[in-house]
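Holo prediction. Input below; ligand is pyridoxal-5'-phosphate.
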Amino acid sequence: MFQASRPNTHLLQGEDKATAEESKEKMEAKLSSLAKTLTPSSIQQLSYLAQRCNAVNLAEGFPDFPAPIHIKDAAVSAILADFNQYSHVQGTCDYVARKTKEMHGMNVDPLTDIVICCGQSEAFAATMFSIIDQGMRLYYLIRHTKRMMFVLGLLEEFLFLMGGGKWQVYVGLDPPQWTLNSDKLEKSFTEKTKALVLNSPHNPTGKVFNKDELEIIAGACQRRDVVAVTDEVYEHITFDNQSHISLASLPGMQRRTVITSSLSKTFSVTGWRIGWAIAPTCIASAVRNIHIRMTDCAPVPFQEAALAALRSPPAYFDRLRRDYESKRDCIFNLLAKVGFKMQFKPQEFVEELIKQAGVVAVPGAGFFHSKPSAYYASTRYIRFAFCKSEDTLAAASLKISRLVDASGNLKLFLTC
Ligand SMILES: Cc1ncc(COP(=O)(O)O)c(C=O)c1O
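Structure of the complex:
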């Protein structure tokens, strides 16, 4: 809820102070009801606290390592070349279209179907304002980021003022693997549902929706004639060889899907504010009209630098994935070391068991169908075949028991 900030009047005294406080109260009363519901972001508050305590900040989701030099050079050149004025850099759209073709096999017209915005955040906000009217419902698959919540709050307020009712529906995914429950999805639709929002690859879980799950979502969107809006800012950052599939690339989906994404995460430039929406022509045109009225254009030197970014060779994207994977493993090991119970990773477990104990088992995944509902189970098991001689079983037992610690647990994964 709204928290009145402390009056910035500590330097004033007596009458001046009383007047300043009175005028501050008057101005606060003029705030919109939406503004009164907003509090400072909890992540930012934690970051301020971290700064005060000189703590290592693992709260805010921005990279603290440098952006690639080839794109920084391109941005510097654009500034030196005086790319200073409002402008739309068509070349960026051309490259977004080319990348979309390479990654997802989709043909997108860069002249009409792509809008460069100030980050995914603006692309998403403009998309929502383009497609949602009062009386319509929006569907959320999976939890969303704070910024999305703000946009939706804004939209909700706007629709409320126009006489609309409750309109957001959340379809929770099932932990711990965040699996999609197709019944839950089906039951959440109503005849008023207009759009479905999907964030994959997902922050913060890292979940990447697989083909089966996407087919379920695509089928539901098509049966109900619903628009899909995807947030794909992590499109290049997936783990354990999972590949990201865009919902838009499924048969029949491109014509009803808006993809939103950005440079922010892929090129470690969250402050450059370059993102885009890729949409059917009429929606792209609406998004463009809203974007132009809200911000006119994304920062032009960075639109220019985006060309260099999007032209990066495949090795750049491979390296990015590998780097993130090793950061993930490092935090994983660190947390395991201090007693967090970590999710079981059968493939790695089996590999470590071979290396450290000299015993081989197989991950259970190969024994499950690839249905979403089986995904969780398939990541929880490994199989030990016991159709072996007693000597073989005794040898395995001896080898494994050498790795058991004083409390009786197997010590694997304890090195960072
Ligand atoms: C899932 C997700 N989408 C979008 C964004 C924001 O992207 P952008 O910087 O392009 O606005 C974030 C930022 O943390 C995010 O985590």
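The longest helix spans residues 314-337. That is the main takeaway for now.
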